[in-house]
Structure formats: structure tokens, C-alpha cells
Amino acid sequence: MSTWTAGPGRARTAGSPWRNWAGNVTSRPVREVSPASAEELAAEIRRAARDGLRVKTVGTGHSFTSIAATDGVLVRPELLTGIRRIDRAAMTVTVESGTPLKRLNVALAREGLSLTNMGDIMEQTVAGAVSTGTHGTGRDSASIAAQIRALELVTADGTLMTCSEKENPEVFAAARIGLGALGVVSAITFAVEPVFLLTAREEPMRFDRVMSEFDELHAENEHFEFYWFPHTDNCNTKRNNRSAGPAAPLPRLGGWFEDEFLSNGVFQAACSLGRAVPPAIPAIARISSRALSARTYTDIPYKVFTSPRRVRFLEMEYALPREAATTALRELKAMVERSPLKVSFPVEVRTAPADDIALSTASGRETAYIAVHLYKGTPHRGYFTAVERIMTAHGGRPHWGKVHTRDAAYLAEVYPRFAEFTALRDRLDPDRRFANDYLRRVLGD
Questions:
Q1: Is the dihedral of CA 390, 392, 396, 397 positive or negative?
Q2: Which stretches of 38-195 are DSSP H helices?
Q3: Which of 92, 146, 175, 238 could form a disulfide with 142 if both were Cys (CB 3.0 to 4.6 A apart)?
Q4: Residues 182 and 433: beta-carbon distance below 8 Å
Q5: pLDDT band at 251 (very low <50, low <70, confident <90, very high)
């Protein structure tokens, strides 16, 4: 195998194919590179241009779409990690793009700081998370990308560009959720705040009650989400609100039993049984939906917002206008009940306030997210197609990193600022150095 290196970074001819976390996307890059600085990253992009190769960056591969797949140069940001600086006057942290969210959260907590909101897993790199629009749930606080105050971007000609509300603001407006189409992110500056406590209240609730009280539950809680178990009338709700304390974390044994043994170990076995014997799934769902009991605990944010997710699955998620959420969910439930489908994974529902990012799924409108999952290896097209039909009827916007079939013609209708983004792409990447089949489908060419 031939190799090439410049400075402390690494480059090699690609050997085995790259696969994503779920195993549903494979690609064969010509070479893989691991630059150790923004300058090395820029050099690799210029080299790819000389060789006539396209460039994509991949973090931990947690996207279910082929957004990171390439037949050219695959950039692995494993050496672009760590905190560059913490500015306590501005209350910001600047972090290298390949830093895993988990490492960032732990480091910030050690400094007495925290992000305001985050998603429910923290395995992704910071750049991968923001570039695909990763979000949690929040009445007032939005996605991870909405917490960005500046970012550093290497564009197609190898230029290192910094953008913020004051510097290159038109790029900043789009590049916070850039899909890898505008350049390669090398560093991100996030807003942070002093670390705080959240009290989580988890409680089983019937589906009809959640539907009738959805607006109230959203309005009364800083962070509300719930899971509905198909083939049942059972939901598990979670309300997270800031607390004056004292901290009251989950007991080590109790937390392990519910979050690891039940939610991962037993659930893995149940999913495997359901895949092998689909008619058993409704009975398994009824048992699973009753296994988790009510509980309340208080801890620092990342220990409340995030949970381990070790059972591998495929996922589709759509962002709807928040006022359409309960109607769409009732339609989804009715569809499952009248169909022969057997669905082993719960449906996840979260919310977000409107934001001002061009291709954010919450751009310009208050949003509810409806996410459906199926266990890895389970045929998914019938279920996902039926769900997508419901979601698109309500003007849904698909998550950029999760399974969907939408194209540029559809997306231009549901994103008012779609043309603004594609015009910027034409300016920053006229030769489509960062293109791939997925971006051609969703952005056009």
C-alpha cells in the first residue's frame, strides 16, 4: 500500500471500503487523509483539486444518508481535536472540528461550563453534528448549530475563511448547517454558559393524553420529549427543567439497570427476536413499553440530555410545523394499526424554536420532530415510505443525516431560503469539489 505524508498529518491510499455506523452506506475513496491542522487540511484540498478528486469529510459516520460518501478524498478529522481557547469574557469556546461531542462536554464540565442544549447522543464530532443539523429538544433553546458564534471553513480553493455575524455574515448564515457543501469546517466557536443543573422527570403516559396535552407539556417545560411504542397506547415522557439543586444523580446501579441493561441489553435481545419472528413484535412492544418506570433525577446537562445508544438501527426523521405534530402522529398511529407492519422501535418526538439558519430544519418556524426507527437488518422501505407520505403531506423537512427520498425540487418548496444556500454554494464551490451523489439529489447541480 502506497503512502504519502506532509508534516504530522497522515495520508494513505484507501484500502477497505468506508462504512457508516448503521452499515447501510458504503463508499470507496481513492485515498484517506488525516490532517493535523487547518493549514494541512487546506493543502489536502488543493492537492485534491490538482488531482481532479472530490473531497468529503467523515466523523463517526452517524449519518444514515450518504452525505459523507465519496469516490475521491475522504478526510478523517481524528487529529483535528481539542479546545483551542475558552473566552470567559465572551462566554465562548473554540474547538477543533473533529472533537467528539462527548470529549467537549466532559472538558467543558471540568471548566464549569456547558452548552445550552444538545442532542440525545454525544458520539458525533462537533462538525459532523452541526453540519447535518443535529438537535435535541427545547422550547426556547435550539439545535447545536444555533449555538455557533463563529466557524472556520476551508473552501474549495484552499482558502481558510472565518465567518460570524460580523465577518462574512452571508456565509455564516448558511455554513452553520452546511451539509459539507460549502467547504470543510476546521474549527467552531460555540456560545457556552456556566454549568447548571437539570431535573429530569420521566413518566409513562397514555398516547391520547400526550396528544391532548402536547401544547401544554411543551409550553410548561424547557425541554419536553416523548416516545410512543407502536402497537400500544403507551408513551414514555421526559421533562427536563433547570433546577437550583441540589444534584441528585441516578444511583449507579439503578441507572445502569435502566439505561444499559433494559434500554440496551434487553432491548437488543427483544429487537433480535422481533427481527427473527415479526409476529411477536406487538407482544414485545407491550412488554417493553411497561418496563421503564417513572423516575426523577438532577444532574449536569450532558448527563441528563444524552443517553447511551448501543442498539444499531436505521432512522428517518421529519421536522414539521409544531402545530401539525399531533395530527401527523395520529395519522402515523392509524397507519401502523391498519397495516401489516410490525414496528419494534419506539417513535421519538421532540421540539425546537424557530431559528435563522438557511437549511436548518427549524428555519423560520417552530418545529416538532417525529423520528421513526427500525432495528438494523429489518426491511425498512415499507414503513419509511408510509411515514414519509404522512410527513410530506404536512410540509415536513427531512433531517439531512437520516433516511429520506426527497430531492431538490421538493426541498426548494419547504425551505424559503433554499435558493440563498445554493447561490452561495455556486460562489464558494463552482467546480463542485465537495459534491457527491447525495448532494446532487438534495441540492441539485
A1: positive
A2: 38-51, 101-110, 126-131, 169-175
A3: 146
A4: no
A5: confident
- What CA–CA distance (Å, rounded) separates 286 from 291? 9
Condensed to tens digits (0 to 9), the pLDDT of residues 372-405 reads: 999 999 999 999 999 999 999 999 999 999 999 9
Cα within 13 Å of Cα(15), Cβ side: 5
Place of cell 454549568: 195
CB contact at 8 A, 130 and 360: no
Helix (H) / strand (E) element for 218: namely: helix 207-220
Rama region for 367: left / alpha / beta (φ>0; ψ in -120 to 50; rest): beta
Question: d(Cα 109, Cα 128) in Å, to the nearest integer?
Answer: 21
Give the relative orientation of helices 381-393 and 325-338 as an angle to the nearest 10 degrees. Answer: 150
Q: What's the pTM value of the predicted model, to 2 decimals? A: 0.94
Match 410512543 to its residue by C-alpha cell.
228
pLDDT in tens, 197-235: 999 999 999 999 999 999 999 999 999 999 999 999 999
Q: Which amino acid is at 40?
A: E
* Cell numbers found for residue 278: 415479526
- Per-residue pLDDT, 266: 76
Tell me: pLDDT of 2 over 60.
Answer: no
CA distance 311 to 376: 8
With contact defined as beta carbons under 8 Å apart, do 33 and 24 qualify? no
